[in-house]
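haha ok so turns out i had the wrong file open the whole time. this is the CORRECT one, sorry everyone. sequence first:
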Amino acid sequence: MGLETPEKPAVKVDPFAKLPTSKRLNVIEEFEKRAQAKPTLNVCIVGHVDSGKSTTVGHLMYLTDTVNQRSMRKLEHESQKIGKGSFAFAWALDETEEERNRGVTMDIGTAHFETEHYRFCILDAPGHRDFIPNMISGTAQADAAVLVVDGSTNAFESGFDAGGQTKEHAILARSLGIQTLIVAINKMDMVQWSQERFEEIKEKLGAYLYQLGFKQSNVAFVPISGFHGVNLYDNKEPALTQWYHGPTLTEQLDRLPPSIRAVEKPLRMRVTDFFKGGVGGSGGVSVAGNIEAGSIQVGEQVLVVPGNEVGYVKTLLVNDESAQWAVAGDSVLLTLSNLDILNLSNGCMICSGSNPVPLTSLFRVQIVVFDIRIPITPGYPVILHHGSLDEPASITKLISIIDKATGEVKKKNPRCITRNMTATVEVQMSQRAIPLETFKDNKQLGRIVLRRGGDTVAAGVVTEILTYGS
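then structure:
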């Protein structure tokens, strides 16, 4: 007996309660005015541990005057005090005591700076394999990515070959919808700015990226030294200018294509963090995240799923600045009133009460399987990653194997799925329903990543939601 198509549940919440029509802003008009001035781009910095991601971003913030000289001197002094002077620039983003003591990024660090054409929100992702879930959460919010690789002797190879995170980060970036990639080949000073080394890495890594599905025209390679600040903002290194005549990292960022924002769709905001207390010491609950679709404004009522908690937007920060409204693409911090923090959870979603995100525990996904050792069979357990949410699930049914080139079904009801195959499967959540949409309805919220035993086994897009509700 086949599954009947379920009805979406009606949720009776007036999205405009507490905000009279006379006081509502026309957010679309306000956004168009802002976009004419300088649009925002969210860029995630990814790569193998110790490739120099945080140091590069920290130095770039210093060169663009986002971090002033006084603050930088303080960071240098503090890092030298514990014998970690070379980490001073990284400390501009790695702010927790544990991150500074261990010398690794653990959570997503954020930085903001401007170029001629854009305002950038930089998301500095951890490189260590223990913190891949945080890397997925950051990359899911990004419009483009910078993949930092260590160009020094043997270092690129250890990050790229077996056990390194360069390949996995590239796979995850592509699987999470990143189409434009800047490859920053870092620590080039360690190989005396060797053009031969640059070309060697470019050829080897480029071939792999194109194989993953990145278009050659959407991938740029830039040689840099994050620690010395060479070719980040300007290029005054004679050994490099002899053979490299391309853009600096900042110039390459400024050449990124603009992102199309789904501002007219219903509100969809991923929650990446929440804590008690409002902005500026006021009451309420603070909720941080990235708006994937739609818009929000102060005074508006919103719905949090799962949990169906209703709250009112009391205050709003966009990229750390006070604002009255925000739209898709903005990184925001909201203060919500009339909300019970006990009903919030990691990976929950803020949405419009009149058009909530569906909750589901069973859905159909088209996946690309990676280089797995154990074939996927019905009942295969996984950890499902969706933004900052990670939950246990299992692949309960193998529907078909698909031809990568044509998209046609090659085989129905296969017994197993092996490495590098494309397939359609059914996924069942093990503990609770999660907020999810089909890829057709929302490209960002319709993507998932499946991991098992610390490795990424597959990624794909949701094609059909089979059950609604908890």
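The first helix runs from residue 27 to 37.
again sry for the mixup
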